[in-house]
Amino acid sequence: MKKIASYAVVGLILSLALQGCETTQALKQNPKKSAEVRTQIAAEYIRSGDLDAAKRSLDEALQKDDRDATANMMMGVLLQQEGSPNNLVKADRYFKRAISLNSADAQVRNNYGRYLYQIGRYNDAEKQLQIAGSTLGYDQRAMALENLGQTYLRLGNTTNAEQAFLNALRVDQDSSVSMIELAEISYQRQQYNAAAQFYEGYVRVVGSKNQSAQALWVGIRIARANGDNMSMQVLVNQLRALYPDSQEYQRYLQLQYSTEAVWK
């Protein structure tokens, strides 16, 4: 799980700067709005990697309104991103408080689900991501369904994972995460034509030169299964050049002389 929701706040920051003292006075008189603005600014700091500035902004936001669900959620995201054991423990409390304040917020559910996935609580993650993935109108519903599919894979439930990825593609036909995971699932079932179609869709979206090590390894095995030795060698060369230390390339070196029908 690789994406964290961003907030478009550059225009807001510029607007605040132009409005100057008048806006500052207005925010002082409206703690709820002040908390909202500080939370949005903190989100931009998180995007740029300035976690200390983000923490200061979120502290100010929560001082203004400690019942702001988004501010609590973003504090959880911040602590999760910092990643130390102590902050990971603290993050859980902020996510739970955000849900208690606004249980209908799909973004809170998605972010909490991603956090739970990261710390290995897959059953708990599944519950949160199911809610986010089934919330119609949520602008990141496809991502929530991708996250749900990957959680099912961790739980060993390939059938539900496949359905989650297919649902993600219905929401966003360019869901590259879903395509490569469905290619892997189809390959493992020895459905090589379907695997090739999903893999080709992935390449169409990301570009042949921008493939992950996981995707190249999927492509290598599909090409081998379909007897396309030329394409297989091209992908092997690409994997070697781009990801020589990856688990995928090391796995290729182990299997390159194997005659097993399905390389795992």
From TrEMBL:
<protein>
    <submittedName>
        <fullName>Type IV pilus biogenesis/stability protein PilW</fullName>
    </submittedName>
</protein>
<dbReference type="InterPro" id="IPR013360">
    <property type="entry name" value="Pilus_4_PilW"/>
</dbReference>
<keyword id="KW-0677">Repeat</keyword>
<keyword id="KW-0732">Signal</keyword>
<feature type="repeat" description="TPR">
    <location>
        <begin position="142"/>
        <end position="175"/>
    </location>
</feature>
<dbReference type="InterPro" id="IPR051012">
    <property type="entry name" value="CellSynth/LPSAsmb/PSIAsmb"/>
</dbReference>
<dbReference type="InterPro" id="IPR011990">
    <property type="entry name" value="TPR-like_helical_dom_sf"/>
</dbReference>
<feature type="signal peptide">
    <location>
        <begin position="1"/>
        <end position="20"/>
    </location>
</feature>
<dbReference type="InterPro" id="IPR019734">
    <property type="entry name" value="TPR_rpt"/>
</dbReference>
<keyword id="KW-0802">TPR repeat</keyword>
<feature type="repeat" description="TPR">
    <location>
        <begin position="35"/>
        <end position="68"/>
    </location>
</feature>
<dbReference type="Pfam" id="PF13432">
    <property type="entry name" value="TPR_16"/>
</dbReference>
